[in-house]
Structure formats: structure tokens, C-alpha cells
Design brief:
3 domains; alpha/beta; 18% strand; Ubiquitin-like (UB roll)
Length: 315
């Protein structure tokens, strides 16, 4: 009997302990959940406060910038300092960039203006500076053309603003809309067609490369001795260079320095002897074929006396 009561008491004590343990677990879980909710609420409030501070600072900063910078008359554009290197006129610069007098310096988009100026085929480099409180400085470096592409007609062998195509030593094509005196003296390039090559980009052509090599080498000769009028690279193996007196000189693609040296000696001989060349083939290293122009004889300055006829006297 005693053993049974003891066993019953043991079972009752076990159930009580399990319920107590479950109660403690529920209380602990509820406490943890309350702590988590409290923590999440605290983080949310902190984020809201931070966001509110950022909005206040942004609005306040914008108002301050508007008052002290964007609407401040001290920062209105008063001086447009331009060094355009002959690319355009000051009024054209204002029209293209929007750099009008009275506009706020901080509202002017210098990056956009730089891209517009750099897109011009004649412009090699662009430098823009915002100088406080009221100055914008614009500096342009233009491309120097060295060759004029011949047009389809004889009239195209002279510069026509807005129509004639030029190129510099980097083979960049350009089509100036204004007339500069130097454009009228550019060598005319024949045998190369710019075709559909976009202005402001380089024209890749072996013939153009050869023409530029010739132009560079011959430009080092003084103009008193020789001045290029045209370079014809229609043939693949040689180029015909014509000077201002319509004298023709043939240059091959091989050994250009040797040909230039023979050409210099030929010009020196003509200067010493007073003779003029009609044509010469500089491709031939020995006994270079040269045709000299025939010198026209000056008319005689001698005056032929007119015979006097005596009249008969009748007696």
C-alpha cells in the first residue's frame, strides 16, 4: 500500500513540474517578443527622425543655396573672357553655349557647353573655367588645316566657305563656314575622295598618308625656292607635285628622304643657273630625268632708222 501511494505522489509531482516549466517557457517567450518589438520600434523611430533631419537639412540647404548662390546678383555673369583662336566670333560662342550676360554662374552648364564646343570639327581642344564672382573664361585651340580636297570641278580647286573640305596633319576632316586668307594658299589634294567620312573624324587612306608625308617634307623648303600648288596621288606608286609656276615633280613612295635631297640639289642648281624646270622625275636616283623650260628671248631694243625720201625740186 505504501508503495502505491508513493508511486501516485511521484506522478502528480511530475505533471506539476511540467506545467510549471511550460509556464516559464511561455513567459520567457513573451518577454523576448516584447523586447524585439521594443527594439524594432526604437529602430523605426530613429530612422524616421534621421529621415526628417535629412529632409530639413536638404530643404534648408536648397533655400540657402538659392539665396546665397543661385539668386545672388554678385554671381551674375558680367565678363566672358574668350580666346577663340579664330574658330568663331564671340556672338557665335554665346549663341552656342548660352553664356549670356546676367545669367548666374552656378546655373550655367559648363559640361554641356564643353561637349558642344568639342563637337566642332575645327576645335582641337576646349578649356572652360568658372572664375568667381562674375567671369567665365573660354579657351579654344583650333585645328590647323594643311590640305584642301579638290572638288569635282575646276571651281572646286579653290576654297569655298561651307563647301570645301580641309584636313589637318591628324587627317581630321573639317568644313569651315568662314574664309581665312590661309585657306586660299593650301595645297590642293587630288586623287583622294573624302566620300561619306563624317566631319570631325579621321579619314583613313594610304594615299592621304603619302600626301601628308610629302606636304610635311616639302613645307620645310623656303617659299622663295618652291611653293606647293597641288599634290596628285591618283596613282598608287607615285605622286605628282605641282608648284605655283605649274612645274611638275614626280615623287615615288620609296626612299622619300633621298628624293627630297635630290629635289633640294635641283632647286639649288636652278637658283644658281637661273634656269627653270618644266618637269622632273625624282624617283630615278641616278641621272634624274629633268626637262628645263625654254627661256623666251627678250624682244630687241634696237630701233631701226626710218629712211628719209628726198623730194625733187622742179626748176
Amino acid at each position: 500500500m505504501t508503495t502505491r501511494r508513493t508511486s501516485g505522489n511521484y506522478r502528480k509531482g511530475g505533471h506539476s513540474s511540467s506545467r510549471h516549466h511550460l509556464l516559464e517557457l511561455n513567459v520567457r517567450t513573451a518577454s523576448i517578443q516584447r523586447q524585439r518589438r521594443h527594439l524594432a520600434t526604437g529602430v523605426l523611430w530613429k530612422m524616421l527622425v534621421f529621415l526628417l533631419v535629412v529632409i530639413v537639412l536638404a530643404v534648408g540647404g536648397r533655400l540657402a543655396l538659392g539665396k546665397f548662390l543661385f539668386r545672388n546678383t554678385e554671381y551674375a555673369l558680367q565678363h566672358l573672357e574668350s580666346h577663340l583662336d579664330g574658330v568663331m566670333k564671340p556672338e557665335e560662342l554665346v549663341s552656342l553655349t548660352g553664356f549670356e550676360e546676367g545669367k548666374n554662374l552656378f546655373l550655367l552648364d559648363l559640361d554641356l557647353a564643353r561637349r558642344k564646343l568639342a563637337a566642332l570639327p575645327e576645335v582641337r581642344s576646349v578649356n572652360l573655367e568658372r572664375i568667381l564672382p562674375d567671369t567665365i573664361k573660354v579657351t579654344l585651340e583650333r585645328r590647323i588645316p594643311v590640305l584642301l580636297f579638290a572638288g569635282p570641278t575646276d571651281a572646286g580647286e579653290s576654297f569655298i566657305p561651307g563647301k570645301s573640305v580641309l584636313c589637318d596633319r591628324e587627317k581630321i576632316l573639317m568644313q569651315p563656314s568662314r574664309l581665312e586668307p590661309e585657306f586660299l594658299n593650301l595645297p590642293i589634294l587630288k586623287g583622294v575622295n573624302p566620300g561619306t567620312t563624317q566631319l570631325g573624324t579621321a579619314l583613313e587612306s594610304d594615299r592621304l598618308d603619302f600626301a601628308l608625308q610629302l606636304q610635311t617634307a616639302l613645307s620645310q623648303i623656303t617659299e622663295n625656292s618652291f611653293k606647293i600648288r597641288a599634290i596628285d596621288v591618283s596613282k598608287d606608286y607615285a605622286a605628282v607635285v605641282t608648284d605655283s609656276s605649274n612645274e611638275a615633280f614626280i615623287f615615288g613612295r620609296e626612299d622619300l628622304p633621298g628624293q627630297i635631297e635630290r629635289f633640294r640639289k635641283l632647286l639649288a642648281h636652278c637658283e644658281e643657273s637661273g634656269r627653270k624646270i618644266e618637269s622632273a622625275n625624282l624617283m630615278v636616283a641616278r641621272n634624274t630625268p629633268v626637262i628645263f623650260a625654254m627661256s623666251s628671248e627678250a624682244p630687241s631694243a634696237k630701233i631701226t632708222p626710218v629712211p628719209v625720201v628726198k623730194k625733187k625740186v622742179h626748176r
